[in-house]
Queue: 4 jobs
Job 1
Amino acid sequence: MDLGLTGKNVLVTGSATGIGRSVVEAFAREGARIVGVDIRDDLITEYAAETGFGDSITAVHADMTVADDIRSALEQVTETFGGAPDILVNNVGAGRLASFEELTDDDFHRTFELNFFSMVRVCRALVPAMYAAGKGAVVNVTSDLSRQAEDVIVDYAASKAAVASVSKSLARAYAPRVRVNNVAPGPIWTPFWSDADKGWLKNIEAAYGKSGQDAVDALISDRGIPMGRMGTPEEVANAVLFLSSDAAGFTTGSTLGVDGGSVRATL
């Protein structure tokens, strides 16, 4: 299917690694022009050159927890595109496995600054301009935990649930010109999990008393994921591209789960 994304201007936040990187590369393969924003903008430049998409991908630096950084980055984005993007993907996000009792007020504030307020600030700056331009699509990357909370990573789940709620409000406020949807990944094998220092894998190994793939398999079994595996960032990117395209032209205010069936709710 031709998604009609050739020549589109696309902004992706949190695009240095993992899901964000796969989203950028998927748009580049479709012939889009992308600005990737991340605190590790050097990694974006590296993979753009490695993959041969250097002419299609521009890297911009920003700490997405800092309002002034976001403002400066968006000035560079609009200068690059000559205006607001056609497509906005708010992907940036992070979290750590911690129980409710372990989480401090500062933990909640840090998580919400990155996962929630970055989306609010970017949308506040760009979505009205997209509306004024006559057409646009926003895809916010949330989480299966925004729909089915667990007893750990409470701050992360709450921040992603807040993103999903604001997405619904924006979808109503800016229709019919701008569509706003969510993609809600389940467990996806990225550095978010696998990083030796900051990834969740070490916590999973400690929780189950197993190592490597055995620990991952224990988690999958414990959570009862019907597909019996973790997802790939490419599978999430495919969902983002679909919701960004005119193929999803009658879809707004929706959440598309890419979670292997981990969410049991019917709504």
Note: The CA atoms of residues 164 and 182 lie 7 Å apart.
Job 2
Amino acid sequence: MNIKKLLKYTATAVVGSLAVGLLVACSSSSSKDTASKKTTVEVGTVGTTKPFSYEDKDGKLTGYEIEVLREIFKDSDKYEVNFNKTKWASVFSGLDSDRYQIGANNISYSEDRAGKYLYTNPYAKNPTVLVVRKGVNIKSLDDIGGKSTEVVQGTSTAKQLEKYNEEHSANPTTINYTDGTIQQILANLNDGRSDYKIFERITVDTIIKEQGLDNVEVIELPSDQQPYVYPLLASGQEELQTFVNKRIKELYEDGTLEKLSKEFFGGTYLPDAKDIK
């Protein structure tokens, strides 16, 4: 082989090797990028239920549930979390359409929801109370017949009262459905536009204090009315459910849940240890 042919062959081989090397490098880089890409978990929340989910003075979404969920997905190799503010009913329609994989907005347990969605370990305990306008003769749930309240349709309270009316058709309670926030509902109660409201203690105490509602009183309900608070997952998200269950247990055991409970609730409002599996 003469010198010209040898040089030409050598140059061709070098170029070919470089091209192969570049293809391998690009392929390796592409595989790495694909492997490192995380799954975004979309969370639907109303964002007005302080101290569970709300916007701070700078417009940043925060609250006990928001910060717990951030901790759940912190440093995850597989998942990253994104929050979406929406209306209450849209949390569930979003779960139905898989627009959201998690709903988080002070959600308690119900058999209807358990039949459609996936519950995880609970991450808070929020006792239910009866908020009554002063001067109204209501001492317990036995006294709500003939009295009025405001509720958001589809909530556990709405279903509870609808069932009450079926069982007390001779003297039902008046249910006024609303799209208003719990802050607006309690303000209406304080101003005399309704007679009572069934809701969770933590939120009620926070709103009464912040809004200076001095025309209402809070009545404790029996211990069987002590709902836990859960993140609710869309059907088919069993793998995500396993991950969230594990992380809630870890955060419970390492004290993170208690720390956040004290920060946002002003005390320890956690599930019993036996209910964290």
Note: Confidence is low (pLDDT under 50) at residues 3-35.
Job 3
Amino acid sequence: MESAQPSDVSGVFDSVDIDMVVKVLSQTAFSPFFTCFIPIFYIFQGEQYNSPVVFISSIYCVAVSAFWSLKWVSRLYRNQASILFGPRPIDWSDQIVVITGGSSGVGELLANTLAVRNVTVVVLDIKPIVTENYNITYYQCDVSKWEEVEAVKEKIVEELGHPTMIINNAGVVQGKVILDLSPEDINQTFGVNVLAHFWTLKAFLPNMIKNKTGHIVTVSSILSMMGTSQMADYSASKAALVPLHEALRSELDNRYHAPEIRTTLLLPGHIFTPMFSSVKMPENPFYKFFVPSLQPVTIVKAIITALDSQHSHTIYLPFYANFTPCLRVMPSYIQDFGKWLSGADTLMKGFRKVTTGGLDEGKPEIAEEKD
């Protein structure tokens, strides 16, 4: 879920949120390196080895270390990686990265950031990207249509070579209640948000399988885990990407025997980009602390870190997004509390769709009494 970046100057404490607290704690109180010094500190202070404080702090250190060790083993298992040897550093100059929806928002920032790394970047969008980077090549393409993706694939291969990475980032939102969605709205949502992923895979995956290398990033949303008012089509389309990602991983491992091709699923919360420029986010400090919005640079950093690691990932951003899958199995009152806390059912009131020409000047589609 995305919206336009606020123009107001932020205060010094505006960046302090639950994500910052979790990051600090992960490097201190929940860090194996840090916690191993706690019992040592007590021993140096004169405590006996069998004293309760040394015993408890040692158990805590073991528990923290076990948690991170299991995560590390899980990551190695998922990527069929070596315990002793990590992947070789990626040579970015050899990469050809296709970014769908790369002319604005997260896609635009990602394209320009990769271009600085001397990466050959291909942007597929219905409008051109405005950039001064010479190694970004734009191709006009409606990625919801197979014929256009197939045709542009031939141009890319002929002019630049076979892509080695795909960032399926393109997305669209209608912001209407179910009964106000026209057939054209629904076809567009599922065409851009779902079918485009199938078309880029059909176009570019065969050569990756042939070379046994590559990386595919699927940009979904935390709204794939729950349905909210005025987001039925968007949530349903983003939900379709989760099993698509999982099925792709299974087929690469078991059918195509190409586990070296990495797959990353990104499940972000609210992002400050133009697509949701008409959404007004709550301004109260409680909301900002526990349900922070994301800057595009945070998403770009996460994607590039995943590509750099050459491992498959499932990335939840911000921190509260990690708990959204749990809501589905919780009692209804807890689900409703989670929606209330995030404002998910009310944020879209008065939403106006952003088209390629800018903000839709038509009247909002949702009448107040229908909410």
Note: The CA atoms of residues 251 and 257 lie 8 Å apart.
Job 4
Amino acid sequence: MDAFAVPSPALFAGLLVGTVLALLGRAPERVPRPATSVAQAVIGVVIGVLAQSSTLSAVAQDWLPVLAVSLGTLVLSMAAGLLLGLQRGVSPLTGMLSLTAGGASGLVAISRELGGDERLVAVVQYLRVGLVTATMPVVATLVFGAGHSGAVAPAEAGAPWYPGTALLVVCCAVGIPLARLTRVPAGSLLGPLVVALALSLSGATFGATPPELIVAVAYAVIGWQAGVRFTRASLGTVARVLPLATALIFGIVGVCAALGLLLSRLTGVTPLEGYLATTPGGVYAVLATAISAGGNVTFVVAVQVLRVIIMLLIAPFLARLLSRFRRP
């Protein structure tokens, strides 16, 4: 998967292998709950450490338009998801989780716990990421006049594993019991995420990030969880939904681009920076494009990370509200 530049290759590898074995009748019925809880916690920490103190300072002056546009992007994508939920075999909750913009791995990780179909959520979420990533350089160049996208310098190799492992242990040891105590939905993800977010914003992580191998295993477990539940009937549902999902994704991309232009007018950033800041997904491709174009990288990434964090904090509560609303 990595060789074909697939986003979150370990997650897709787990999804593909789990699906094939499930269709052959050789997969277990489910992944043990402790394994999925730990995987969710790891992903929560990964997302939490994305936020830095520079994230807040970059948007502090223009916090109101940034917040309004971020919420607008979320409302738009969730509304498109409810439209997807009108399809036969797709619940409104599953549709909403499938098309909500940002934090694909986090939503896939918690979708089953929230009552959604994580198989469909995984496929549609990463279809969104793939389409956004594929179209972003073209739109940035042809529409907004971005320079040629060069390669982003790879992350520093050979970093010691123990600071990141210690960070994971602390975030999980504090975050999971805290989430259970407060009865937060999707607590295995949200508890460690909030602790990692607090530590990162206070500078207490000292630049530590979860080790890549542990993160890859966590992604694989989440993919495997979705894959082993596939049946021939569910595969047919996914195939039937994809045309509408694709159309809705392109619609979301277009409206988010318009919101980016609005953000540009309200904050004074360039139209390209506004577009990149509001693109519904593909944060690493956004980063690469912003760097190569010489844009305001800090602002772009700050808006992207802010949207992901807001989404993951409110999505479980919206899902719970939606499930209650649908009860007879």
Note: Residues 170 and 219 are 20 Å apart (CA to CA).
